[in-house]
Amino acid sequence: MSIGTKCVQGGYTPGNGEPREVPIYQSTTFKYASSADMGKLFDLEAEGYFYSRLQNPTCDIVAKKIAELEGGTAAMLTGSGQAANFYAVFNIASCGDHVVSSSSIYGGTYNLFAVTMKRMGIDFTFVSPDCTPEELEAAFRPNTKAVFGETIANPALTVLDIEKFARAAHNHGVPLIVDNTFATPVNCRPFEWGADIVTHSTTKYMDGHGSAVGGAIVDSGKFDWNAHKDKFPGLTTPDESYHGVTYTERFGLGGAFITKATAQLMRDFGSVQSPQSAFYLNLGLESLHVRMKRHCENGLAVAKFLQTCDKVAWVQYPGLEGDKYYDIAKKYMPLGTCGVVSFGVKGGREAAERFMGKLRIAAIETHVADARTCCLHPASATHRQMNDEELRAAGVTPDLVRFSCGLEDAEDLIADIKQALE
Ligand SMILES: *Cc1c(COP(=O)(O)O)cnc(C)c1O
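Above: the input record for the complex with pyridoxal-5'-phosphate. Below: its predicted structure, written as tokens.
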């Protein structure tokens, strides 16, 4: 099946007389005939559902669709994108370990890594996505367990050279984890370029309507944990908290990572996505391929228009010819990038704020990547506590407006920007 057909039909094929739409299994628990039947589930010897903190049929159907979209072997839903990135890293890195990450990542992820996971004893080295192979090489340590980056970074809109990062990771016997939130599998499938694990904030384009916070983790099934047994004992040696199961032996390379993340991390941290949210997510996924095309068309039209405005100081959009990341975006995302455009309003912080206050269609929101156009002035919102100098160091200039093009008609978005600039 092609990607659009997978968006619409993936993950769920009803049997004779069964519901056409994915059913919402609004149940915390599941009934069994005997304690012995249930015991087998607890030992991971039989497949089945027993408690929705571990697994729920609605969530599994939607996870299966996302696995198909990414071309992976297994997937799980999480309660948010934050939980997805935390689980993906913590599943293989523990206290005393080290991770190499692109410095150009979502602010929430940066905080998770640099502050909260550091408190758990995991060290991160941040490298520029534009680093040379030598600089990347120098970031590794003997205790490095993973490499992390974002296909298109939120909000910096840098594009990750997936092959460069994958090559470095594999040279050191560790997997590359890619947060593919902004590109979505419609525009980029990181596994095809060497990534091993993909994560998503499904809150963004996948849901696409600003309806439900959620996340997902997908495994390519390609990383050979057994070839680096000493680095990944959690996957390759018996788990005493699960009656001595060895994940790679019992579930193979295709299932070990997601089974461990479910059996250990979801069991202990419980960041589940509700079946109701998974249902909304699935509705979003059914039109993802149609919507992404439109988001990208609107993004490009708005970026091209902004380029012609004398009140605009600069425009950044990886789909725009002449953009620093245009060539690399064309390589990894030939169909388009995303609907988010960054630009600077001449006159700096005050001018940017005044401009945004005059917009009529684009709403001021912390959100990005949904059906309705929205925008944010990071200097007065998410990065408010920083002075101009600190903002520049974080790659957020005081004049920066993050503009997330929705699904409206491009001419209306352009007219709105035009009147606000005037
Ligand atoms: C929003 C976002 C996250 C965090 O996701 P939540 O669903 O808000 O927890 C992670 N990565 C990227 C790239 C994001 O845009």
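Notes for the reader.
The chain has a mean pLDDT of 95.
Residues 377 and 401 are 5 Å apart (CA to CA).
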